[in-house]
Write a structure and sequence with these properties.
The protein contains ten helices and two strands; from the N terminus they run H-H-H-H-H-H-E-E-H-H-H-H. It has one domain: TorD-like (Orthogonal Bundle). Helices cover 71% and strands 3% of the residues. With 225 residues, the chain is mainly alpha-helical. Strands 1-2 form a two-stranded antiparallel ribbon. It is globular.
Amino acid sequence: MIQLTPNYYFSSSDLYQLLGHFAVLTTRELAGALQSGALARDVRNILQELGLNPGQLEGLASGFDAIAAQNRDADEFFHALRRDYSQLFSSPRFSVSTLYQSDFLGEAQNLQGNRLVLPQTIREVRAAYQQAGFDSCIAPEKRADHLAVELEFMQTLRRNQAIALQAKDDKAYNEISATAEGFLKTHLSKWAVSLYRDIEEKAEEDVYRYVGALGAAFLENELSS
């Protein structure tokens, strides 16, 4: 049985942060961490702290170890990751999926006269952020229902759960826990696991296939905890 300790919540926060790096256009720093093995070590350490069984941990972490063992030109690797990000997410003409929850769920925006009507999902996500006092480092550059912002929100909540638990502040811990579990159930459970399975299936680069498998397994673990 998973022990919900401060270390568990800090590790959960770290994994939300790690997944968030792959929900925006690849940076050279991220590509370098993949090739150096630093990211592979982080994945393995985080999964150990989360208490995954050894077989599942090895299955998820070994792919990132394999990436680090490849001898690809750094510049070619970086641009290959950016091309895969584009074919997965960022081209309106040919991308296979979307990083926006409302778009993923088919909630197209409609014009009524001169007023743009926001999908219910966007309104609900914004309300959740406002109620929790959450200010994104990414929004408004990214819309509120972008995966990177939703992961950033969960990263913040899990870190705050850990801090409250360390301080033995039961009231704060219970309030933050209710917010986190509510957001998982109301939002991420409705699309993020399916999105990560799409990524695992449709990525052209091994990196994004492994990210898809990691994201799906992690969120399934979060939803069952």
